[in-house]
Design brief:
Elements (H helix, E strand, L loop, with lengths): L1 H10 L8 E5 L4 H12 L3 E8 L5 H17 L3 E5 L2 H8 L3 H20 L3 E3 L4 H14 L3 H4 L5 E2 L2 E2 L7 H11 L15 H16 L3 H30 E4 L2 E5 L9 H9 L6 H8 L9 E3 L3 E6 L2 E6 L7 E4 L5 E4 L2 E9 L11 E5 L7 E5 L5 E2 L8 E2 H7 L4 H4 L3 E5 L2 E5 L3 E2 L11 E7 L1
Parallel strand pairs: 1-2, 1-4, 2-3, 4-6
Antiparallel strand pairs: 5-6, 7-8, 8-11, 9-10, 10-11, 12-16, 13-14, 14-22, 15-22, 16-19, 17-18, 19-20, 20-21
Helix pairs in contact: 4-5, 6-9, 6-10, 11-12
């Protein structure tokens, strides 16, 4: 099976021996097999685990299991906790869709932050069948009909050449241990309903269902290439991006019956559905100002153009800072970190600098956006203050409050970044070492 995966990876140019890879690992049977195959192939990889907090202690046990798995393979381990239900409620989407959006956003941020070459996930042929059927029930374009691609930018899926039965054979032979997600058995989720109730019926009609669907998906993929070549020419004519904002020239779009499909292909990378795309077309002859939202982006019709901006998803995730880290570069924030002895250290005044007592900090530190209920002890004071009240006192505009981030040490807020240090972490005459953080 190792040779089969390697041949598949070479066919689609998924990775090279020199690539640094982030493996997305839940702890389930598929991702456990993925880790073992990466190790067998002697690839350089780290493990990333997303804890969505949906199953309480079971979710935390999954995280601990994956952490031990990373130790087994002697690779780096990264984890992130998400307030998935809050994000799902805000965007009015399913919990599964919320989890998918959050984890892939985090994986890509992690890849950029740590300079990795690939993100690898453990999808296999059975996932392709489920995805195509699910997409058909929801309505889909060509990408939905070819299911899951082996490669999508930096994201790769080397197990797409395997069936679920192959996965079970492998863990049996290698005697691997994995975690069972209890939510996989419930048919409340749409994908599970297809997996447990629909696919077994289809396999009665065609026992070779996975292979047949995979072949059909390959044909659709070839047809999609032709469509994409045309759409790319249109994209080059009508789309431009400046300072993170994308502009689409309405007048440059072709006037044909295929316009809904063409515009959908242009807007789909920003999360807009075909139905929403048709609504956007309906505003072309109307006045400016109509706004549309996807899970990840906002689109506004402004005179003869569409203006597309990304939403800020950082409120539902965080970034870690390690003890020996020198710099942190994330969207909208760049920090330099310097570890110094306290002898003769002179504090630099200003909101863009924080000098903290190094020995009072517990690493890894975390940076996240503030949330309701957060409190700290403002520098120079001994009592607690809610951050919401602090931001009111600081007269921070309402539309900028959600951009305010905090530095935490073991869940205690040490610095409202760019505003105020916490009195508990300040430098005193007893301080021996200093962590100086500067906003660049």
């Amino acid at each position: 099976m190792i040779e089969k995966v390697l041949t598949f990876a070479q066919q689609y140019q998924l990775f090279t021996p020199d690539h640094q890879i982030i493996a997305a690992v839940s702890g389930g049977i598929d991702s456990v097999v993925l880790c073992d195959l990466l190790a067998e192939l002697n690839l350089k990889f780290a493990i990333a685990h997303a804890n969505f907090g949906l199953r309480g202690e079971e979710s935390d046990a999954d995280e601990l299991f994956v952490k031990k798995l990373a130790k087994k393979y002697n690779v780096a381990f990264y984890s992130e906790h998400f307030n998935t239900k809050a994000f799902a409620a805000q965007e009015k989407i399913s919990t599964q869709m919320a989890a998918r959006t959050l984890r892939y956003t985090w994986f890509e941020n992690l890849r950029q932050q740590l300079n990795y070459d690939r993100i690898v996930v453990a999808h296999h042929q059975s996932d392709t069948v489920e995805t195509i059927l699910l997409n058909l029930t929801r309505g889909t374009g060509l990408p939905g009909l070819h299911g899951i691609a082996p490669k999508n930018g930096y994201l790769i899926r080397p197990l797409l050449c395997l069936r679920k039965d192959d996965i079970y054979d492998y863990v049996t032979t290698k005697q691997l241990i994995w975690r069972e997600d209890s939510s996989n058995e419930t048919t409340v989720y749409q994908r599970n309903k297809i997996r447990h109730e629909v696919i077994p019926v289809l396999k009665q009609l065609n026992p070779n269902l996975e292979h047949t669907v995979q072949q059909t998906a390959a044909k659709i993929s070839a047809a999609e290439i032709l469509v994409n070549e045309y759409v790319q020419k249109v994209r080059e004519q009508v789309l431009r991006t400046e300072n993170g904002i994308t502009y689409l020239d309405i007048a440059g779009l072709p006037s044909s019956a295929a316009l809904p499909l063409i515009l959908f292909e242009l807007l789909q990378p920003y999360g807009f559905s075909f139905e929403l795309t048709q609504s956007v077309i309906g505003t072309f002859a109307a006045e400016s100002g109509k706004l549309f939202e996807s899970v990840t982006h906002t689109l506004v019709k402004d005179r003869e153009q569409l203006v597309i901006t990304a939403k800020n998803l950082q409120a539902f995730g965080s970034y870690e800072i390690l003890a020996d880290q020198k710099e942190l570069i994330v969207p909208d924030l760049q920090l330099s970190l310097t570890h110094l002895t306290a002898t003769n250290y002179k504090i630099t005044t200003g909101k863009k600098v924080a000098a903290l007592d190094y020995n009072l900090l517990q690493f890894p530190l975390k940076i996240r956006t503030w949330k309701e209920g957060d409190w700290f002890v403002p520098l120079g004071m001994n009592g607690k203050k809610k951050i919401s009240d602090f931001l009111i006192d600081e007269k921070v505009p309402v539309n900028l409050k959600d951009r305010v981030r905090v530095l935490t040490s073991n869940n205690s807020i040490a610095w409202i970044i760019g505003y105020r240090l916490d009195n508990r972490f300040k430098i005193t005459d007893k301080t021996e070492q200093v962590l100086e953080m500067k906003i660049k």
